[in-house]
Amino acid sequence: MNLEPTIEADCIFDEPFELVSGAVLPRLNQHYAIYGELNADKSNAVLVFHALTGSARIGDWWHGLIGSGCALNTDEYAFICINFLGSRYGSTGASSVEFYADKNDSEFPLVTVADIVRAQKQVLDRLGIEKLKAVVGGSVGGMCALRFATDFPEATEKSIVIGACELSAMGLALNHLQRWAIRLEENGNGGNDGVSLARALAMLSYKSADLFDEKFARRPDRSGENPFEKIDARFDIAGYLDYQGEVFRKRFDSGTYKTITKAMDLFEIRSNYDSEEAALRRIKAQIYLIGISTDWLFPAKDVRALAGKMRRNGVDVNYIEMISPDGHDAFLSDTAQTSKILKEILIND
């Protein structure tokens, strides 16, 4: 059973919110959830950033990691998660009626990781939280944890970044192909399979080749199809990808997918600053960069390289590597290792 939040609510800001692009949202809604209890001076708060398809409800997607005595220990900390600006799970985003009621645009404006983080900082201010014990996130959530540490250097003690750094050309290419598949559907050229195909492509980058070999090998699809007899008959891996795409399109939307993958593409350490070095030198939090040995979306070598840059610029940084066959998804699926790492970082000082 998924853990239910202690509090789940909307934080509404009626004043306009200007994005980095210069576009202005007439109002802003941020949907958030809190697990555990804030103490009297609100000094035990940890901000959790979800990944691409996540929501404010940590218990729905980080199974086995949050609760009493877990790595995200609700007996000790209050864990706050806020649905991304641009997402579909409660915050102002690509599917928001309130945005399209005031605008004639057919698409939601360009959103950056900096926009997402600044919108969430407004929620923390509204809640009266001056300094966090930590911020933590994986994938695009890890990008947000990095951005928070540069943009709000006094606002957190620690920043825990799992499987994240700037996207390489390969990552940019994969995101481009996913949005291309969605555009084909929107233009009527791809049937109803654009979002499904985008998800199937993404799944290739979330797993590792070894994991696929172990789980699927060259077996025929478990439905009984024989790929050696018909051109459209599938191997088991193809059936798995088709299933993932079919399930995904029932719970997600193309606008959110395009908005957040584009925000991932645009993420750079130097954004908003004169240089990457200037951005890194602003950081005051302890940084924990966690690479994943089989991650080819955010290769461990790239995360290690970022740790090196941080050290050269005076950042208190620790690099940790998860040795896991699960690929990029290890921060979600390899509960034992992720729990161990988070417990060691979040243990009482």
Characterise this structure.
There is one protein chain. This protein has two domains: 7-166 and 268-346, Rossmann fold, CATH 3.40.50.1820; 171-259, Rna Polymerase Sigma Factor, Chain: A. 39% of the residues lie in helices and 17% in strands. The chain has 13 helices and twelve strands. The protein has helices at 58-61, 97-102, 113-127, 140-151, 169-186, 194-206, 209-215, 236-249, 254-266, 276-280, 300-312, 330-333, 335-346, and strands spanning 7-13, 17-18, 24-25, 28-35, 45-49, 66-67, 72-73, 78-82, 132-138, 156-162, 286-292, 317-322. The protein has an eight-stranded mixed sheet, with helices on both faces. A two-stranded antiparallel ribbon has the order 2-3. Helix 3 (113-127) packs across helix 4 (140-151), helix 5 packs antiparallel against helix 6 (194-206) and helix 5 runs antiparallel to helix 9 (254-266). The radius of gyration is 20 Å and the shape is globular.
Structural classification: alpha/beta
Using the coordinates shown, work out and report the CATH topology of the largest domain: Rossmann fold
Count of beta strands = 12
CATH superfamily of the largest domain: Alpha/Beta hydrolase fold, catalytic domain
Shape: globular
- Total number of domains: 2
Largest sheet: 8 strands, mixed
Low-confidence stretches: none
- Could you report the average pLDDT, rounded to the nearest whole number? 94
Number of helices, where a helix is a run of at least 4 consecutive DSSP H or I residues: 13
The proportion of residues forming helix, as a percent range, comes to 25-40%
Question: CATH class of the largest domain, anyone?
Answer: Alpha Beta
Strand arrangement across the biggest beta sheet = 1-4-8-5-9-10-11-12
**H/E element string?**
EEEEEHEEEHHEHEHHHHHHEHEHH
Radius of gyration: 20 Å
CATH architecture label name of the largest domain: 3-Layer(aba) Sandwich
Beta percentage is 15-25%
* Span of the ends, CA to CA: 31 Å
